[in-house]
Amino acid sequence: MPSPCPEHHPGAGRRGARAAAVLLVLGLAGACAEAPVNGAPTPPRRAAAPTIPEVPPSPSLPPTPAEPAILRVCADPNNLPFSNQRGEGFENRIAELLARDLGAELEYTWWAQRRGFLRHTLNAGRCDLVTGMPSSTDRALVTAPYYRSTYVFVSPPGQPAAVRSFDDPALRRLRVGVQMIGDDYTNSPPAHALANRGIVDNVRGYAVYGDYREDSPPARILEAVARHEVDVAVVWGPLAGYHARRHDPPLVLVPVEPQIDLPFLPFVFDISLAVRRGDEALRDRLDLALERRRGEIDAVLAEYGVPRLDRRDAPAPAEPARPDPSRGGSSR
Fold it and tell me: 238-251 burial, b for 16+ CB within 10 Å, e for fewer?
């Protein structure tokens, strides 16, 4: 059965792997079908329905030096630790900091973050800002990076030695979990790195497009490590850092090596904000806001356990993030 995602082209080799890396960095969690998200609680702010027809761009933010009255953000309503409709994700928190800095009201359009996300949201004029975008994207205008993270090896505590490299001989005998993209299980960058080394038969795939009725579908691969279904998994750092500490005892994280698998398959990414191409005025205002709020953004990322390669001096907190109930979130 062909993939329902029209932009999906499986079997694209390393080029496809690099594209898959960007998709996983975005924290993809939604179903491919363009359907509304059902059963979600009433959002704390105005939210545009994700099934409305395509509309021409009509930005709320005027391209003038004046500060915007509304900061329109497109985000996934069910993708912790990045975002959810209750405002519990670290990208929700960062969006709030930016809106407050710009003196703007924050307004969300909720859309499952999958292939075509930018085309159907930012570039369709439904919002003016997307958070958590790889800085290397050419599909939008990006700000300066506000963090750099990496894929990590995730292991249960108590193993004799943690895996640290794709060249570790232990990967040939351990059960290895990797995330796969789409209903036809397109290879992700870790799967490509393992296959390039002949490590195939002991690899188990976990769909990034999980059951969207569950909370944060991509987290299933972390649960598999905790249940000892696999001995080690390779996961995008922010996803792993948040969910690993929600298990008792916490799972063990080690940044992958090499950071770039030759000839060019990266496992480390700078992350930026994204606005529409041509909206330099908003990009420049956001760059200034990011700089003014640098300390607060760093604190939010640390609270959520995001592995950082740009701030090795930032200690990870001992406890998982617990959203403030006064902000509409709840501890879990």
Answer: bbbbbbbbbbeebb
Lowest mean pLDDT among 14-18, 88-92, 315-319: 315-319
Give exposure, 175-196, as e/b (b: 16+ Cβ within 10 Å): ebbbbbbbbebbbbbbbbbbee
Preceding peptide of 2 cis, ω within 30°: no
3-class DSSP state of 325: helix
Give the integer Cα–Cα distance in Å for 238 and 305. Answer: 7
Question: How many Cβ atoms sit within 10 Å of the Cβ of residue 207?
Answer: 16
Nearest residue to 112 (alpha-carbon basis) of 197, 208, 190:
208
- Judge residue 215's burial from the number of C-beta atoms within 10 Å of its C-beta, 0-12 exposed, 13-18 middle, 19 or more buried: middle
CA dist 64 and 280 (Å) reads 10
In terms of Cβ atoms closer than 10 Å to its own Cβ (0-12, 13-18, 19+), residue 55 is exposed
Rounded Cα distance between 12 and 283, Å, is 33
Tell me the per-residue pLDDT of 227-243, one tens digit each, with 9 for 90 and over.
999 999 999 999 999 99
Q: Residue 177: what residue type?
A: G
pLDDT, tens only, 128-185: 999 999 999 999 999 999 999 999 999 999 887 789 999 999 999 999 999 887 554 4
Q: Which sign, positive or negative, has the C-alpha torsion 138, 22, 194, 311?
A: positive
